[in-house]
Amino acid sequence: MSSYPPPPAGYPPRRRSILGPVLIGLLLGFFLFDAFPRIAERFQALRGRASGPAAEPRAVTPRGDLASDEKATIELFARCSPSVVYITTLARRSFLFDVMEVPQGTGSGFVWDRDGHVVTNFHVLQGADSARVTLADQSTWKASLVGAAPDKDLAVLLIQAPKEKVPPILVGTSRDLQVGQKVFAIGNPFGLDQTLTTGVVSALGRTIQSVTNRKIENVVQTDAAINPGNSGGPLLDSSGRLIGVNTQIASPSGASAGIGFAVPVDTVNQVVPELIQHGRIIRPQLGIVPADDRVARQLGVAGVLVVGIVPGSSAEQAGLQSTRRDDEGDLVLGDVIQSIGDAKVATFDDLLSALERHKIGETVTVGYLRDGQKGRVEVKLQAP
User: Fold this and answer.
1) What angle do CA 255, 256, 258 make, to 5 degrees?
2) CA max distance for the chain
3) CATH number for the 288-380 domain, one of 3.10.50.30, 2.30.42.10, 3.30.70.1060, 1.10.540.10?
4) HSE-CB of 134 using CA atoms within 13 angstroms
5) Residues 6+ apart with CB under 8 A from 110
6) Among all residues, which ones are annotated catalytic?
7) pLDDT in tens, 252-308
8) Which of 237, 323, 324, 384 has its Cα between 20 and 30 A from that of 228?
């Protein structure tokens, strides 16, 4: 580290001058002497202000009566929110020698009936080991899984709560919805329970994919804010009736971007009773073994190729033909199903969707292609 050089020989040693500190002291004293009157004057002004008349709160301006639409929204929330629940899912984790349940996720749901059945999305419960349901009165109940329909992203839980604590939600229809009508979503976005958002029906007849990549058809699109945690909650019309189950959003950020989707209530009202009764969807069948869609595309087939017929099935009785080998060992393609009733069938997913519109025991018209010729046959739908 460098240092100053020593004084030359013959020079007296350096001494610190006191002139600088003296000058600084004089300047500081002059400043204080000059500024003191102004400081004192400001202090007196502040004292005078503090001792002036006391400030009082502003008078409240009376407001007029609430608008009619505000009253309707307030009444709707008060009436419907007791039917909306908060769902917490749990997963088992091992810590040393202990097995504990830790929170995995949250979602929404709603009370279906006085027996304590609760409807939610399947993806809310997916991968969980158990679930808890918190009612509007903040009481929490253990929930058991009654049934699930992953293809429709719906599931039913059961809680053993007193009937007076579980008011069922009102059920409406989705087939008569109109674009532009008001809708209301109640749920628990980001864990904030009993949240109300409003909007309109933005579009109808949308198609989305479930967690199994099956198509969910006739989905309701809305601009009511739907965020993570709203899944499984109800979408209501202005009468407070259920018209859909909030299930997905379209958003680059993962938060609401004004495009939300709800499984239509007509689908919910068809699926939920089956889940309560059977634990799964009981889908009517033709009695065929279909080819994989990829195989059908490779063969240039437009529709569902029949590769097998279940012995004694409705398909066999109706005369549908399966893929087979002829006497010379060449492959002969079976019938290609192209329609069920009025529904066009291009894929196996289309076939399942078409069958879901009917019940076991109903007779449907099956349109098929055989050796390049179109045909139609009546088939009575059977149980699995």
Assistant:
1) 155
2) 132
3) 2.30.42.10
4) 14
5) 83, 84, 85, 118, 119, 120, 169, 232, 233, 234, 242
6) 123, 153, 231
7) 777 778 899 999 999 999 999 999 999 999 889 999 999 988 888 888 888 999 999
8) 237
